[in-house]
Amino acid sequence: GAVVSQHPSWVICKSGTSVKIECRSLDFQATTMFWYRQFPKQSLMLMATSNEGSKATYEQGVEKDKFLINHASLTLSTLTVTSAHPEDSSFYICSAREGEYEQYFGPGTRLTVT
Amino acid sequence: KQEVTQIPAALSVPEGENLVLNCSFTDSAIYNLQWFRQDPGKGLTSLLLIQSSQREQTSGRLNASLDKSSGRSTLYIAASQPGDSATYLCAVSPSNDYKLSFGAGTTVTVRA
Q1: What span, in angstroms and rounded, lies between the C-alpha atoms of A22 and A76?
Q2: Collapsing DSSP states into helix, strand and coil, what is residue B82?
Q3: Beta carbons of A108 and B41 less than 8 Å apart
Q4: Would an 8 Å CB–CB cutoff place B40 in contact with chain A?
Q5: From the CA of A65, how many Å to the nearest CA of chain B?
C-alpha cells in the first residue's frame, strides 16, 4: 500500500527559531501534497496544498510567510515554521496523492515551542 | 463553507456491542466522503471511502452509509473489540481535488 512518512515525529524548539518538517511519499509519486494542522481534540484543518514544482496554495487565514512550503520533488514536501512561537505548537500532518487517486496520510509531527 | 459535525464526541461501550457513529455536513454538494481512524498521537488510517453516487461501503465489520441529500453518513462497527478503541474522523471533499473538510471526531472506548 501507499506509504507516507514524516520526519521528525516530534520536535521541540525554542521560541523565535525555525523548524522544518519533511513529508515523503515512499512508494509512489505524489503530484499533490497537503498539510494539515490539528489541535488537541479538534479536527484537522487544511493549511495548504502543494503541487510539485509550483507554489503552494494556502487556505484563508494561514500566513504564507510563517509556514513556508516547498514541494521540490515528486516524493518530498517540506513545511518550515519560521520564527516559531508557543501558539504554533500543534500536531502537523501531511498527506499525499498521485494524480486523482485518494490521498494517504503521514504519521504526523508533534511540534512543541517553548 | 462546509461544516462537518460528528456526534457523539465520545462513546464508551462494552466489548461485543455494535457501534454507531454519526457524521453530518452542511453542503450536500460533495464529491466523496471518507471515514478515518486515528490512534492517539498518530496519523490517519483510511477506513472507507464513499463516492457521492454510492449509498454505502463495507469492509469487514465496518459499514458506512451515505445520504447525500440529507447531509448525513453513519459508520457502523459490528461486534466491537478493545482494538477498535480510537478516534474516528469523518471528512468530505467537494471535488476531485480532495481538499478534505474534517469533523472533530468521535473518540471510542471499547471496554473489555
Answers
A1: 7
A2: helix
A3: yes
A4: no
A5: 22
Nearest residue in B to A39, CA atom: B104
**Considering chain B, what percentage of its residues have pLDDT values greater than 70?**
100
Interface of B with A in 59-78 (CB under 8 A): none
What are the cell numbers at A19? 523548524
Give, in order, the Cα–Cα distances in Å from B62 to each of A15, B47, B80, B87, B112.
44, 8, 10, 15, 20
Give the type of residue at B73: S
- What is the per-residue DSSP string for B37-71? EE-TT--EEEEEEEETT-SEEEETTEEEEEETTTT
Query: Model confidence at A1, in pLDDT bands (50, 70, 90)?
Result: low
Residue B4 and residue A43: Cβ atoms within 8 Å? yes
